[in-house]
Design brief:
The protein is 53% helix and 0% strand. It is mostly helical and 139 residues long. It is elongated, with a radius of gyration of 19 Å. The protein binds heme C.
Length: 139
């Protein structure tokens, strides 16, 4: 009995392992869905619809446009949330490092036509983008 069941148990573990690997970077699905909309509107032109760094503007930018599906892979399997958030915002980054090719989004994602705390509106949008990028990680 044990011997006949063993392969099934092994198979079940394999399926579970693959399922877990597919979601190695946990993310908030609701935020990610909103982030996807923002991404397609503001980011896909350079980064590509699938965030692989192959948008239609990529060929005319002097530096390679980053592949955003390998952020975790390039950081020992851990999604670098804070660094990504800060890079998208960009305002501190420009002060610290000077030149960069990517536009600054911290101001651009505010909606002065809408009521409310503009800083919070932009931070929420960046938060959603980060969740969306988490959902795209290959590892
Ligand atoms: C005008 C083209 C352009 C647009 C639009 C753009 N990016 Fe970028 N992005 C780049 C380039 C080029 C880089 C590589 C770093 C650099 O030179 O600034 C980059 C790098 C990044 C990085 C860092 C990647 C890493 O490897 O650390 C993140 C995260 C990122 N972009 C997210 C976004 C998001 C989110 C948006 C939309 C809100 C966006 N980008 C819009 C061109 C763009």
């Amino acid at each position: 009995m044990m011997n006949r069941l063993a392969p099934r148990v092994v198979l079940a573990f394999l399926v579970l392992a693959v399922a877990l690997a597919a979601y190695a970077v946990p993310f908030d699905t609701v935020k990610a869905a909103s982030g996807r909309v923002t991404f397609q509107r503001y980011c896909a032109s350079c980064h590509g619809a699938g965030a692989k760094g192959d948008g239609r503007l990529a060929s005319i930018i002097k530096v390679p446009v980053a592949d955003l599906t390998t952020l975790a892979e390039r950081n020992q399997g851990e999604f670098p949330s804070d660094r990504v958030r800060q890079f998208i915002d960009g305002r501190k980054d420009v002060v610290a490092h000077g030149l960069r090719e990517m536009p600054v989004w911290g101001d651009a994602l505010q909606h002065p036509d809408q009521p409310g705390d503009q800083e919070k509106i932009a931070q929420d949008k960046i938060d959603q983008l980060v969740e969306y990028l988490k959902s795209l990680q290959t590892k």
